[in-house]
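INFO  loader      accepted 1 record
INFO  loader      residues=273
INFO  predictor   begin
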Amino acid sequence: MSEIVGHPLFQGGLAPLVVALIVGFALARTRFAWLAIMPAYATMIALDTGFSLFPPTVARKTMAIGLLAPLVGIAADFYPRASRRIAVALVIVTALVSLWIFQTVLQNRDGANAIIAGAGVILFVAAMIAFMLRLRDDGVRAGAAGLGLGFAASIAGILSASIGALVAGAAIASACVAMLIVQVALSRMLAPGFTGTLPVGLLVALIAAGTQQLALLPWYALPLFLLVPLAAAMPVSHHRSSIVRATILAGYALAASAFPIGAAWYAARTAVQ
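INFO  predictor   done
INFO  writer      dumping tokens
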């Protein structure tokens, strides 16, 4: 039993999927259905590393911010009339928070390299949040994007020698699959709002940036991650059934995820040679 619980596929796949399904169905008739992302992610942490915050490493800071993000999203969703201004504010704030998360890593770099690396992280996080928040009114698109992003972060992570990214990315993908299943089963869309799109976008951005800064993911893989939410935003008729929309959009997102995964594979292959 301990071998099963300790397996990455259980920690990042099955357990978060089941938890997200339970919470998603339980909250499906409320505006908080997408809060299911948080307990699914927390389940992965509990099974993998635990909730220790000290010393405050990049991974632990990412964990803390990831668990707080849905709560920030809930607060933001209470002000629908100001959603555009809130979205802009969240893009700026999360980009600045990323500097704090990677502070110790950037401090170990030379002046010019630290500035370039810091600017790259800020731009990547800001762009990812902006692209994900654009999907906040469409639960199927957001679920498809989260599936593609989590899958890309997971596979690119293992190719880049990061087990942490493998498990964390898989947990996000599994949680988003669960939300797609909930919507298909109920035959209605559950708008994620900021509650769903903020944590998904922020966690994937921080996981990918962390893999790039601390492992072997090449820098040019980061902008390729942005293709996933763009693919999930491609036109698909709302007149199609929920299962057809979910299948098509998930296919788009997974196809787009091949680009950052391919970049990670190429870098790993080049490093071996």
